Each structure stands twice: as structure tokens, then as C-alpha cells.
Amino acid sequence: MTTDPTLIAAAAAIRAGSKSFAAASRLFDRHTRESATLLYAWCRHCDDVVDGQQLGHAGPEAPVQAPAERLLELERKTRAALAGEPTAEPPFAALGEVVRRHAIPARHALEHLAGFRMDVEGRRYATLSDTLDYAYHVAGVVGIMMAQIMGVRDPAVLDRACDLGLAFQLTNMARDIVEDAEAGRVYLPGAWLDEAGIPQAEVADPRHRARLAPLAARLVDAAEPFYLSAATGIAHLPPRSAWAIASARHIYRAIGLEVKRRGPGAWDGRVSTSSARKLAFVLSGGVSVLGRFGRRSPPPRPAYSRPG
Question: Which of 163, 172, 174, 200 has its CA 20 to 30 A from that of 139?
Fold first, then answer.
């Protein structure tokens, strides 16, 4: 059992912040699991600081600083951690350690923060391409960093890791449309909302649920090519990492399909997967790895090119 305070804090963050990721991460070998946990702790902390939350939930007190000021502080501390400066704050110590261990380019962490800046500045997304740009910064680049933790350096495989991050984020967007809109954030393409006759300011209004459900289904459908593309990349990971990521892929994809199945009722309660279904997906993830996703000709990548 580890006595490293940074790792202990990071492990606590992942247990409280994401049951799905925590379940899949148990399949990693110890060193990969530790690094993935360290990266998650920093990502979770950044998300919470910008939102004024704790582990994805409202904190006991409202933050004093405005979101823009909190983001600037995050950027300052992140740059210091990337430069190897010592810190007593566990999330930034975690980032510094994982970047050092795996030679992760500093630009990826900064690209992730750029996604939070889009939220802070209230960016609107006119087209699906715009939505994917946001998804890249908050999730696609995290997929790239995770793949680098697993030893991937081939740009083509990193592209597929990015695709999985995009698929996860599109799924999350579909599941959380109403919750996000209540917080003033709308990631649905504006063109889609215009077609459906839903004003951006009224996305969370229950009166629009019947017209909103097909838009959520469109997001779920948009994620499918990215899930398919990602399967090719999984075949190039070490076996235990492949099992973990294949399981996460099954779990998150199922969440999106459930949102689509429920239609207007998708937002009556948060869509999730039961422990029994998670176990089933872990088993099916193992089977898919044994079959090695990549034996077939790799599918073409969806029409998205990551920066750089």
C-alpha cells in the first residue's frame, strides 16, 4: 500500500469523482494505474476549481474569486508544475510527477486548460465542428495524455486515443444537456437548436424536452464513428491497458445508447450503469481484447484533425 500523500489524494479524488473511470482503472497494471490516477486528480481539480465545486458537486461555500480569476490561478500553478517547481498542493504535484514520468509535452496540459477558458468566456458553438473543438480540449487531449502514459508515441495511435476522448465527451454532453444548460453552458450546435426551434436560453426548459431528445440522439450518433475509430487504437496498447480502455469504451458507449433509448425521459435522473452492467462490460472488454480489435482493416478516422 502506498504512503505517497500525492497518490493517496489522487486516489481519493478518482473514487469520489468518477465511478466509471475508477472501475476501469482497476484493470491497469500498478504503475499505469498510479499515473492515470495522478493525471485524473489534476483534471478533476481543474474542472472543480473553474466550476466552484468539489469533486463534481457544489462545495460548502461559494468561491470568492470570479471564474476568470480562478482560471488564471490554475494556469499559473499548472505552468509552475510543468516547469518542475515544487508544490505542496496534491493536484499540481500529481501533474508534475506524471509529466516527468512519461515525458508528456507541456502543451497538452495547457490545451486542456484552454477548454476551460472556453467555458469561462461563455463560448457558443454554431456547428458540430465547433462542438468537437471544445470536446478536443476538454477530453480528446486527455485521451492523448492517457495513451502516452501507456507508452504510446505513434501519432496514428494517438489520433485514435483522441477519438475515444471525443466519443466520451459527446456522450457526456448528451447525458448532461439539461444540467449543463442550467449552469449556463450549451454545447449543442446552435444550428441544431435553430432547426428544432429551441432558443439557447431555454434548453433546460422542460417544455422543450420532446424536441431536445432528438438532438441528444444526434450527439450520441455523432459519437459512434469516434468509438469505432478508437477500437483500432486499443489494439496497439499493452494487454492490461487495452482491457481497461476497452471496458471504459463499452461503459461510456452504453450510457449514450441509454440516453438515446430514454428519449425525453433521459433527464429525469442521471443516466448511469449499474455495478452488474459494469462487470459485464469489463468481461466483454476482456473478450474484445482477446480478439484484438485491430485484426480487421482499420476504419477511416472521422472528419476531425487534432491540433498539432
Answer: 200
